[in-house]
């Protein structure tokens, strides 16, 4: 499937003000724009309701920007779903014009569009990322569900730049079993960090 071309309309699941709970910017206030549409098919996905883009209103970019700039946060995180199923050139241009930092959270399964201050790549085994995104990635975040994910993590880490920050994050439903294994791994291989989804612990969105 090709990404939605730049129609100026993007399916929006929600726009909300919270803190970034994961990865390098963990603990930083941000506005999140969650886009509808994803066909990557992670069986443990906690945003399955976002998969069908037609379940969500298609909103004009100007309206999305207007809604977003109401909040004082400098950072706007575009997430999903899989945001790169849509052309994000217009949206990122509008947000940058409004003085916001644009951050992307993506599986990388679709071609990159938009202008980004930060890209968090969370590749999935179910649909490999496009090669072009690896060298533009600021942080690589691997969701760990089972032991094979450490092998996958190392394979993916070979593709990003040396400056890229590396994170291992337990899949939420498996955190009790997986977290001690991640901690042990990070102690052995200190180029990795633990990412914790702190927004779920403090029970904010
Ligand atoms: S890529 Fe993200 S939104 Fe899509 S199925 Fe996987 S976890 Fe869910």
Set out the fold topology.
Elements: E1 9-19, E2 29-35, E3 58-60, H1 61-68, E4 75-79, H2 89-97, E5 101-106, E6 118-121, E7 139-144, H3 148-157, E8 165-170, H4 175-188, E9 192-194, H5 198-201
Parallel strand pairs: 2-4, 4-5, 5-6, 6-7, 7-8, 8-9
Antiparallel strand pairs: 1-2, 1-3
Bound molecules: iron/sulfur cluster.
Task: Describe the structure concisely.
The protein is α/β, with parallel strands linked by helices. It contains five helices and nine strands.
Shape: globular
Structural class: alpha/beta
- Portion of residues in beta strands equals 15-25%
Compute the separation of the termini in Å: 30 Å
SSE ordering: EEEHEHEEEHEHEH
Counted beta strands? 9
Strand ordering within the main sheet:
3-1-2-4-5-6-7-8-9
Provide the low-confidence segments as ranges: none
CATH architecture descriptor text: Alpha-Beta Barrel
- CATH homologous superfamily, by name? Aldolase class I
The CATH class is identified as Alpha Beta
Number of helices: 5
The average pLDDT score comes to 94
Q: Which small molecules are bound?
A: iron/sulfur cluster
The rounded Rg comes to 16 Å
Characterise this structure.
This protein has a single domain, classed as Aldolase class I (TIM Barrel), CATH 3.20.20. It is built from five helices and nine strands. The chain is of the alpha/beta class and 205 residues long. Strand 7, helix 3 and strand 8 form a beta-alpha-beta unit. Helices cover 22% and strands 25% of the residues. The structure holds iron/sulfur cluster. Iron/sulfur cluster (SF4) binds next to loops.
């Amino acid at each position: 499937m090709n990404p939605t071309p730049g129609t100026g309309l993007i399916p929006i699941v929600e726009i909300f003000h919270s803190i970034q709970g994961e990865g390098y910017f963990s603990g930083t206030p941000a506005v999140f724009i969650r886009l509808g549409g994803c066909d990557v098919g992670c069986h443990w996905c906690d945003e399955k309701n976002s998969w069908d883009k037609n379940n969500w209103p298609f909103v004009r970019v100007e309206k999305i920007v207007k809604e977003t700039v109401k909040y004082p946060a400098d950072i706007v995180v575009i997430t999903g779903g899989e945001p790169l199923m849509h052309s994000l050139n217009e949206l990122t241009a509008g947000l940058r014009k409004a003085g916001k930092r644009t951050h992307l959270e993506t599986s990388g399964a679709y071609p990159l569009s938009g202008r980004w201050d930060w890209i968090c790549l969370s590749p999935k085994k179910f649909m490999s990322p496009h090669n072009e995104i690896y060298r533009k990635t600021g942080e690589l975040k691997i969701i760990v569900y089972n032991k094979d994910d450490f092998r996958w993590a190392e394979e993916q880490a070979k593709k990003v730049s040396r400056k890229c920050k590396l994170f291992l994050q337990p899949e939420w439903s498996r955190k009790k079993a997986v977290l001690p294994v991640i901690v042990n791994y990070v102690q052995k291989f200190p180029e990795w960090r633990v990412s914790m989804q702190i927004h779920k612990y403090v029970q904010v969105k």
